[in-house]
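Shipment paperwork, digital attachment
Item: protein structure file
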Amino acid sequence: MLRKSTAIDHWRAAIAREDAEDLLALALGGAAEALDPEAIVPARVARRYHEYLERRAAGEPVALIRGVVEFAGLTLAVRPGVFVPRGSSELLAQTAVAALRRRSVKVAVDVACGAAPVACAIAAALPGRLRGEVGAFTMHPPYVARQEVRALPREIRGFEPRHTLTDGSPDGLGLVRDLVQEAPSWLRGRGVLLFEVAPYLSRPVQALMRRADLEVTVQADPGGITRVVGGRLRG
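Attachment content:
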């Protein structure tokens, strides 16, 4: 059912199986890692499981079906109306935490935060009261170009609020441009500005930062795909 669904973005071959296992674990009330392939599934659990499968096949994200998502060791509640946190954003949080740990005053501002997974992850790694200068801005912007929203898989365009996908600009970088212009006046010392964007937007974002006289860095995920573009104040 899931493999044949055109509402799901099958960007990895194993996604359908992983989703099916997660939903079976949800129906059983356990963890996917503890599933027993030899166990007999009660009829009521099977009915619940097939309901979950139908919702997923229609494009509803697993996180919304479950009502929670795991992110950077945290369990975050999610509901319709906000962008569902993705595991790919964990690199953004890790990069910000690493930058803040090198500073004596630790303040982070997560812009366009949605469900605030990055802010929660940073706060969990930096306990205590945040005060003083801004050491890092983080942002996972709604970077889909206005005219490209209709081409997104149904599991995204049908279940994520439009404003979490696009800022309405022709290239999807309207909010990025605004923050690149505004952030330097808020940053102090060697403060950083960090964006999580799609790989195809890495170079345009780097160009924006260089025009703002920021030192540019990039971070790749374990698969070698550029996910985080950073800019640091010079000096």
